[in-house]
Design brief:
Helix content: over 70%
Shape: elongated
Number of helices: 9
Largest sheet: none
Number of strands: 0
């Protein structure tokens, strides 16, 4: 049994380390949420993060949604023609985009662009001791650095997802009416008839959760950055990976929550 002792010890150490890390993330998230509701509020910094997270992410999110809608319409046509169900393409496109593809694609694009940027920025501040300087000046780093990013992420990612839904549906409409010879009037009518409020609301709730996860993991990895350029780079990489995994896990949990509604 001795040959099993080392693997078991290694497995136990990894499990304990993972649980400790998860606990730290939850504590950090709790402090971040608390800082969002306690004065003072740095409105200038919040507005700056709204522009950075929301406006500057719009081109990549819109482009991703456009091609996602176009590809979805083409793939649905290939599959549905085998069952003579081409008429359901408009319904599937709009429901898939609003409930699933719009929030997930937008969340992943924002995670790749924003989470790494947040981690690198805060990591550089950690390495250069600027965060310690804020504490010395009696400025709460959570209030000044974490809270504005969380607020901006929770507010702007749903707006980005709403825009992505519109652009994605438009992409499916363009492909269906130009390449697949669908009637413009019937496609629009079926899209409107198929769409329900719960489809849009569930997607926006997902988007708010994704925005929270993206900003929290970016800030957390930045605060935990090690000294040196490699440490900052590792923090940015870890932020993207952890944000993406968090988005996928949350997506399943929220999908199960809204299943059948």
């Amino acid at each position: 049994m001795k040959f099993l002792s080392k693997p078991l010890v290694a497995l136990g150490e990894c499990t304990v380390s993972a649980l400790v890390e998860i606990g730290r993330v939850f504590i950090f998230s709790g402090n971040g949420i608390r800082s969002c509701f306690v004065s003072p509020f740095y409105f200038k910094e919040i507005f700056h993060q709204i522009i950075t997270i929301g406006f500057y992410s719009l081109p990549i999110v819109g482009l991703t949604a456009l091609f996602a809608g176009m590809v979805l319409a083409l793939q649905m046509y290939v599959g549905f023609t085998r069952f003579n169900a081409e008429g359901a393409i408009a319904s599937v496109v709009v429901i898939s985009l609003t409930r699933e593809l719009g929030p997930v694609f937008a969340g992943l694009m924002v995670a790749g662009r924003v989470s790494s940027s947040i981690a690198a920025e805060i990591g550089s501040m950690r390495v250069s001791e600027q965060i310690d300087a804020l504490t010395t000046l009696r400025v709460d780093p959570f209030k000044f650095l974490v809270a504005p990013r969380i607020i901006a992420g929770v507010l702007m990612v749903p707006i980005l997802v709403l825009i992505a839904d519109i652009i994605g549906v438009m992409g499916g409409f363009l492909v269906s009416t130009t390449l697949l010879n669908f009637s413009v009037g019937s496609y629009i009518a079926q899209t409107v008839q198929s769409l329900e409020w719960i489809d849009v609301i569930s997607g926006l709730i997902k988007a708010a959760a994704f925005g929270f996860v993206t900003t929290v993991f970016g800030c957390y990895n930045g605060f935990c950055s090690e000294v040196g350029a490699r440490g900052v780079g590792n923090a940015a990489t870890s932020a993207v990976v952890s944000s993406s995994i968090g988005i996928l896990v949350l997506n399943y949990l929220l999908t199960a929550l809204f299943f059948g509604k």
